[in-house]
């Protein structure tokens, strides 16, 4: 596969929600992982292929769109014990910088806001390539992930396990599989 050089990709992009996944993984009962995703979000990015440090991105996620394929768990995750979606409907990320790590990897730093708590994070992304789809749209792909501490965002609910430990781990890994379309 030939990867389109970044220098030809400068422009403004919008996330394609039908081909982008914003997911997460959290430890459950100390022995397994629960995976989930957010089904409603929007985002834009400016890519500067010549000087990636001039690139930027913003993403807004609807907290109530959380989906772990278990409605009872999802309902609990929407409450004040976790995301408090009725009072804090949006989770946001606004980039503050982009640093090239090599030809295809970048660290995107920015402010992540969950439940009205804003903290800086750095997400490593890998450029997956670009292609023109059958409708004439230029698409770019990036994959990345970052671990965060849910306690740092005021999400502290837990339950002790009989044999020791807790029901929900503190570390949550946010995962991004992004397809973005260049705007005209």
Provide keyphrases for this structure.
1 helix, Lipocalin, 8-stranded antiparallel β-barrel, 184 residues, mainly beta, 4% helix
CATH fold-level label: Lipocalin
Helical proportion, percent range: under 10%
Write down the secondary-structure element order.
Answer: EEEEEEHEEEEE
Which descriptor suits the 3D outline?
elongated
Strand order of the largest sheet: 1-4-5-7-8-9-10-11
Task: Work out the oligomeric state of the chains in this entry.
Answer: single chain
CATH architecture term: Beta Barrel
**Helix/strand/pairing category:** mainly beta
Number of helices: 1
| Content of β-strand | over 45%
* Integer-rounded radius of gyration: 18 Å
Largest beta-sheet characterization: 8 strands, antiparallel, barrel
Q: By CATH's scheme, which homologous superfamily applies?
A: Lipid/polyisoprenoid-binding, YceI-like
Question: CATH first level: which class?
Answer: Mainly Beta
Distance between the termini: 26 Å
In total, the number of domains comes to: 1
Low-confidence stretches: none
Mean pLDDT: 93
Strand segment count: 11
Pfam families: YceI
Family: Belongs to the UPF0312 family.
